[in-house]
Amino acid sequence: MTLFLDAFWRALAYCLHPRVILLSLAPLLLTAGLCFALGWFYWEAAVDAVDTWLRGWALVNAFTLWLESMGATGLRAVMAPLIVVALAVPVIVVVSLMAVSALMTPALVRLVGARRFPQLARRQGESFWRSLLWMLGHTLAALAALVVSLPLWLIPPLALVLPPLIWGWLTYRVMAFDALAEHAERAERRALMREHRWPLLGMGLLCGYLGAAPALLWALGAVALILAPLLVVVSVWLYTLVFAFSSLWFTHYALAALERWRSQREDQILPAEGIAAPGPEAVRAAGLLDAPPGPHAPG
Question: What does pTM read for this prediction?
Answer without folding.
Answer: 0.77
